[in-house]
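Inverse folding, one chain.
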């Protein structure tokens, strides 16, 4: 079992930056694929970014088109933490952001959120115009 706890959300202005953190406990997650999703009011949960390990210190990253070039997903295995650095935030980025873990480690984009086994409680990000 893996427990995920997000932090770092808040209220910012358009153009600002935020860094979200997702701390994992219970088991080390170095072999898991990790992802970030978000859900805005009245909308479905959508994919933001994912990370899949290739070897011990190398991973591949994947991004939604809407955040590519602005957001960066990264991992610090020593801290069992995955991050989402969000730059040049826009009002349309406003949502609850969720961290998720895929125990298979493979990350299959076609599965979307159903490919992830563990979820955090979410952290609110609000971007004002």
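Residues assigned per position:
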């Amino acid at each position: 079992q893996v427990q995920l706890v997000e932090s770092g959300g808040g209220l910012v202005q358009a153009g600002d930056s935020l860094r979200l953190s997702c701390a994992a406990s219970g088991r080390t997650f170095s072999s898991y694929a990790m992802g970030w999703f978000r859900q805005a009011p009245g909308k479905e949960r959508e994919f933001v970014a994912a990370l899949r390990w290739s070897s011990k210190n190398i991973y591949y990253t994947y991004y939604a088109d809407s955040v590519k070039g602005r957001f960066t997903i990264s991992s610090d295995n020593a801290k069992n933490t995955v991050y989402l650095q969000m730059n040049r935030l826009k009002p349309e980025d406003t949502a609850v952001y969720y961290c998720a873990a895929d125990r298979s480690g493979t990350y299959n984009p076609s599965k979307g959120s159903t490919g992830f086994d563990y979820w955090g409680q979410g952290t609110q990000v609000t971007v004002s115009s």
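The two ends are 40 Å apart (CA to CA). The first strand starts at residue 3 and ends at 7.
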